[in-house]
Structures are given as C-alpha cells and as structure tokens.
Amino acid sequence: MAEKKSLGKELTKGIIAENPVLRLVLGTCPTLATTTSVESAIGMGLAASVVLICSNVVISALRKVIPDKVRIPAYIVIIASFVTIVQMIVKAFLPSLDEQLGVYLPLMAVNSLVALHCERVAVKRTIKESLVDALSASISYGTVAILVGVIREILANGTIMGINLNMPVHFSALSMPFGALLILGFMAAVLKAFINKKYPT
User: Fold this and answer.
1) pTM of the model
2) What is the Cα–Cα distance from 22 to 2, expressed in whole angstroms?
3) Distances in whole angstroms, Cα of residue 51 to Cα of each of 37, 94, 100, 133, 190
C-alpha cells in the first residue's frame, strides 16, 4: 500500500509540481514549433511519450551494466534508436504528420526533456519507478502540447482538427512562436497560482 502511495505521489508530482514544460521549462523548442495545430501537437506528444517511456525503461534495466565512463554516449545511442524507430513508423504510416513535425522529430534524440529524465531518474531507480516517472512526464508534456495546439489552432486559424469554425476574428499572430510563448506563460502562471493555493509554504 505504501509503495502504491509513493508511486502515485511521484506521478502527481511529475504532472503538477514538476511539470516539465510549465515548471522545469524542458522541451520548450519543439512545443513552440509543433503546436500550431492540434494534429501536430498530438503527434509530437505521442512521439515524445514513446521515446521517453521506452528510453527510461531500457536505461533503467541496463543501469548496472553500462559503465559510468560511457553513460552519456550510451543514453544518446538508446534514445536515438527509439527516435529512429518512431520516425520510420511516422514516415511510413503518417507522412503528412512527418512533414508537419519536420526536423523536430529526429531532434528528440537530444531533447532536454528526454535526456534529463534518463540522467536524473532512469540511471538511479528501478524499472517500475522509471516507468512511473516517464508516464508522468509524458502525460504532462502531451497535455500541455495539446492544450497549446487547441488554443493556437482555434484562435489563429479558426479551425479545430482542420474543421472550419467560421470565427469572425482570427489572431494570426498566435501561430508564431511568440504566440505559443504567451500561451505557455499564461498556463505557467495559472499552474503556479494553483500550486501556491494548494500547497502553501
């Protein structure tokens, strides 16, 4: 029971107190670039989740085998392998999504979100703990990316998943990177206010 509570606490902490995008400011660059539409935001969120979860689990499983001197290169090889697999699948079955994600899909091999979780958690904890950490970060990143994608697509283009909403006014500036920064800043402020109210110091 205590173990379940501990894992549940870790999951919640990763989503709220240590939200990778809004609190730790990780993976910001792909978030700005790939959330111009809901479709691309979902695609990047799922791709990042697969890479993060698989990398965390494999690195955790091999943590006692990988020599400390080659730890970082080993991480890069493992992460890059999963990125390549995901990219090949996307190219084969979702070419339009691959075009939308562009260079940001292969660049996940050096994404700060994935690298930090592998270094901070996977190399030090059990497979189960690493899996919970990866799930928490994946849910956090995916949720933020999709919310930003929804807001930007509706307000900038007047569409949702390509469906025209016939909006009288569009804020096309939100399709630019600084528009995403504004939305992320607002979301970060709301989350901080919630944390301060829920967990006063």
Assistant:
1) 0.89
2) 29
3) 21, 17, 18, 13, 29
